[in-house]
Amino acid sequence: MSRGEDMLALVRRLYPICRSITGDGVRETLRIIREQLPLQISEVPTGTPVLDWTIPDEWNLRRAILRAPDGSILADTDVQNLHVVNYSEPLAAKLSLDELKPHLHSLPNQPDLIPYRTSYYKRAWGFCLPHRVVESLRDGTYDVEIDTTLQPGSLTYAELFIPGETEEEFVFSAHVCHPSLANDNLAGIAVAMGLAKRIQAKPKPRLSYRFIFAPGTIGAIAWLARNRDRTKLIRHGLILSCLGDAGSMTYKRSRHDDSEINRLCEYALASTGRPYTVNDFIPYGYDERQYCSPGFDLPFGAMMRTPNGQYPEYHTSADNPDLLRAEALEDSLSVLEQIVEAAEANQTYVNKQPYGEPQLGRRGLYNLTGGATKPAGYDMALLWVLNFSDGKHDLLAIAKKSKLPLATLAAAAEALKKVDLL
Ligand code: ZN
What we know:
This protein is of the alpha/beta class and 422 residues long.
């Protein structure tokens, strides 16, 4: 199986699980991730204050069924868990159509799809149905059976830490709170896992890597509240979501225009030679909203293909595994690998012999035969690195000026370091 097919198989396995911001669906999801990666799992009890929020009661769904007056089943979460409003309180009742209607959600413009709806912080209940079903309902007595629990428990999140030579961290964060939704949720998880496995399989990296699998908003807030001191060590961060659709890559920048994560991502995307989009930061979207809040002000961007809200299947039953492409997952993973590679290579050096050019030939570094018009890539890279290693330009900045690949500049810097010129 290709890596893309591997990721798609994982998405298919996770898809039926009813996740939410708390509960056994998240735990089961993390248990499956832990089959492949040594996750450290944390539970934060209901009622715990986290920044300006409080961990809510834990929600679990056994089954929710809506029966028509003739006894036929209109919605059954055993078939599709999007049918129940996520965090619906338990209820068993017989209702008239007028009583039922305010609790039904549908999409008039996409009448065949089931919408995804939640009510985490306001006690409510409801069913989500295709609009054509809602329109067909006739007067009579409807049977509502919502078998859920909503009581004190805990919120679950997980992290994987891969130590590097430095304590500085590159953090990847994926949300794990969406029920049966594939691109928005599971694609990010699958690609994050692929990347973590890849980093783990390699020799010890220079940077340390942390992967956070947490429920959206409240999970990221809980992690930040409990790791306030650690955030000082975060050098780069990326939110991973919507990474499996057929669209091209989209990068949403962190709020500091010149941050290294922005330059790393834009460099890696440009290197693919394929079309991509870069959007500026806005305070809406995924958990970059929390990591980039002004108090933390962390350098987090978001890597996606087609962004949230911009594909018609978004937050509907059509965002299912059939929407995803193995090649798209594979492509997303390879872009992220290039970003990691660039982050590993990108350093700022200081030339120890800055007065005049040091004599490279004497040190066995310069292959240019006198008289040739212009040195080739690697020899040019030596000159560029020496000239701009003034403590102010990192290799990425030199790559931009010289139009030389970062990898060539990194190899040149490594060679210069060996002969003690940097
Ligand atoms: Zn979403």
